[in-house]
Write a structure and sequence with these properties.
Length: about 375
């Protein structure tokens, strides 16, 4: 091991000497002929050994392997290696590579309406698959400063999905949030189909009780069918205290519909990951609390349920990047859910654009209809 470390350090020092030699060989004529892209690359590699490598990678949002590939190409080829040679084809899937001004405005409007949407979901929303690629959208968002840099973190491996078909298993959980307008805690009851990732619940309650959860399940079963199994955490709303059996309300459901209940292992919340993820989406991505109840002072829960039903329409239409869904949407996989693109567009406009003083104008609708 000591020999290998010394060998790698020697190779690194030799590469740096060759790199410095190449830099010294650059003439003013070479520098004048460089494009902006090449000038940026030259600026990046000139920082080598002048600044810590980690600071360089973070400042320019590049990977270590990309940096050293660029250095090696520069050593071998000189200034020509700094030019943009990514080789992206001029068109994508028979379409065009550039986005016109109206499409740019529409993409920026959608991103500002919901900052959580990425380029893949925006591509699906505007139906641009046959016109331009999602990487083109991503570059536009980067140029407009609408993409946040997130340092890479290795994910811990776990299996969040249980194999099966739609309605084989539902995940359920409570999502608590404070309502400034109502001055009290409100609970959303999340019910998610484990196989298709479909959001099935629009239930809101002022109390975190097993009765509220059972009512939400009954409503979901009327609309989407009866599951074979329901999975939850170990909360007292779902599980009887000091007993390995469901609570009284859930025991009645089990007897009435023949449903089995399972519970997460203590300390392993990822086993109920679909419902936990839905709670996070609701708090981070969904409309603010002020909008949820501002127009519903007389009947806040019904207004909130309506908006949640619109949210479910939009979410269940979106393509899902889960490893078992391969880009399919929950609506395509669940037999009881049917959502058209028109319904998804209208739900997105109502939930995300209108609250921020925006909406789809005539040219936006023309682009949406033309691309689909």
């Amino acid at each position: 091991m000591k020999q290998s470390k010394s060998t790698s350090s020697n190779n690194s020092s030799e590469s740096f000497l060759l790199f410095r030699k190449r830099l010294e060989e650059l003439t003013p004529t070479d520098l004048e002929g460089l494009s902006k892209y090449a000038q940026r690359n030259l600026k990046i590699i000139r920082c080598w050994h002048l600044n810590p490598l980690e600071d360089i990678l973070k400042a320019y949002q590049i990977s270590k392997s990309w940096f050293f590939r660029l250095v090696q190409k520069f050593i071998q080829e000189g200034s020509s290696a700094l030019e943009d040679r990514r080789g992206r084809p001029p068109t994508q899937k028979g379409g065009r590579s550039k986005i016109n001004k109206q499409e740019q405005e529409l993409i920026i409007k959608i991103k500002k309406g919901n900052p959580q949407l990425g380029s893949r979901r925006i591509e699906a929303l505007i139906g641009s698959q046959d016109c331009f690629h999602h990487t083109t959208i991503h570059r536009l968002l980067q140029k407009e400063g609408l993409v946040n840099f997130h340092p890479y973190r290795r994910r811990k491996p776990f299996q969040m999905v249980r194999e099966g078909e739609p309605n084989a298993c539902w995940d359920i959980d409570f999502c608590q949030f404070w309502s400034e307008n109502l001055h009290k805690d409100v609970y959303r009851i999340e019910i998610v189909d484990d196989c298709t990732n479909a959001r099935l619940s629009t239930a809101l309650s002022f109390e975190e009780s097993s009765q509220a959860a059972a009512e939400a399940l009954r409503q979901a079963m009327k609309e989407y069918g009866v599951p074979r199994e329901i999975h939850s955490d170990n909360g007292l709303q779902f599980r009887a205290a000091r007993a390995d059996r469901p609570s009284e309300q859930f025991a009645r459901l089990a007897e009435e519909f023949g449903i089995s209940f399972s519970y997460s292992t203590e300390g392993c919340p990822n086993e109920n990951g679909k419902a936990e993820h839905a709670c996070r989406d609701f708090k981070v991505e969904f409309l603010g609390d002020d909008l949820l109840f501002a127009l519903a002072s007389e009947d806040p829960l019904n207004r909130g349920r309506y908006l949640l039903s619109r949210y479910n329409v939009f979410h269940n239409w979106l393509p899902n990047q889960g490893h078992h869904l391969y880009g399919a949407s929950p609506a395509e996989l669940h037999p009881r859910i049917s959502v058209t693109k028109q319904e998804a567009w209208e739900a997105f406009e109502e939930l995300y654009l209108k609250p921020k003083g925006m909406s789809f104008n005539t040219s936006d609708w023309q682009i949406l209809q033309r691309n689909n």
